Amino acid sequence: MTEREIVDFVAAMPGTATMTASEQNGAPDVAWGDTFFFREPNGKMPFATLVVSDYPGFDERSRLDRPGVFRLNVGVGRERFEELIGYPPSAHADRSGEHDYTELDRLLPHPAYAAQAWVSILNPGERTEELARELLVEARSRLTRSG
Q1: How far is CA 114 from the centre of its chain?
Q2: What is the number of alpha carbons within 13 Å of residue 22 lying toward its C-beta?
């Protein structure tokens, strides 16, 4: 899956808005190029993001500074997180060292937001493309059900 394929897939979901951070829309420069996926109307918090660079001093474990590497992040909820990862989000602080956050095409807890029940995939490919699409649809649907 390319970045464009992910953006197009999410943008095609009814009631969904995408915003790619840029100087033109006033985003901080560290986020330029990152895309945020919101429920419309009035989406305040994204249900997924596509990140293309590290956030120095905060979120560098995925090594997004490598050429062509990007990370899809999806808020999946506590129950689904535990199904996918094998432990609850609240246990992540004690278990974060178990993961190689630089591995491509593998579902991982989000390196910075696992405790909030977010997962991530670097460059979704053959192993994770179908799961990535499924998780994006689930995340969007979960927001619709919750309000």
Answers
A1: 11
A2: 5
DSSP structure class, residue 115: G
Q: Is 138 left (phi over 0), alpha (psi -120 to 50) or beta?
A: alpha
Q: Which two tokens stand for residue 62?
A: 């995925």
120 in Cβ contact with 136 (< 8 Å): no
- The tokens describing 14, both together, are 């009814």
CATH code for the part of the protein at 3-146: 3.90.1150.30
Give pLDDT tens digits for 60-114.
Answer: 899 999 999 999 999 999 999 999 999 999 999 999 999 999 999 999 999 999 9
Strands of 71-75's sheet in order across: 16-20, 35-39, 48-51, 71-75, 118-122, 107-109
Side chain identity, residue 61: R
User: DSSP class of residue 84?
Assistant: H
Containing H/E element for 50?
strand 48-51
Domain locations in the chain?
A: 3-146
- Per-residue burial over 114-131, b = 16 or more CB atoms within 10 Å of its CB, e = otherwise: bbebbbbbbbbeeebeee
